[in-house]
Write a structure and sequence with these properties.
Elements: H1 5-8, H2 14-34, H3 42-69, H4 82-91, H5 93-96, H6 106-111
Length: about 120
């Protein structure tokens, strides 16, 4: 999957749909060549990948929530494995989410920000 990162992390439009389909076919062939059990079809492999990404996002969200509980320290109750780390690195910012500057520290942020107000003419 890593060698196809640029394709899988891009948006899907009519021009890139064919490229993504071709990449999925390559991944399917490589996966089935190395699989020890029964071969997967394209749809089941895509669902499998979607579920792995969803679980990675769920774990990353829980880690973020635990950081607020622990005051910024890493959570002690959540353990991640090598696969989670690889998928998180593959997904990039999409896995970890975005910071909200107006979250629990919003008032502190506002006191350090300069606001310009415009009066109506």
């Amino acid at each position: 999957m890593c060698k196809y990162k640029h394709v899988f992390n891009s948006r899907t439009d009519s021009a890139s749909k064919l490229t993504k389909t071709q990449m999925w076919e390559r991944v399917l062939n490589e996966f089935n060549a190395e699989a020890r059990g029964s071969a997967r079809n394209l749809k089941s492999l895509q669902v499998f990948w979607k579920n792995i990404k969803r679980r990675t996002k769920d774990v990353e969200g829980e880690i973020r929530r635990q950081r607020y509980v622990t005051g910024g320290r890493p959570p002690v109750s959540i353990r991640v494995d090598r696969i989670h780390e690889e998928v998180r690195d593959f997904m990039g910012p999409a896995a970890e989410g975005m910071d909200n500057p107006f979250d629990s520290d919003g008032q502190n942020l506002l006191s350090n920000t300069y606001f310009i107000t415009f009066n109506a003419l």
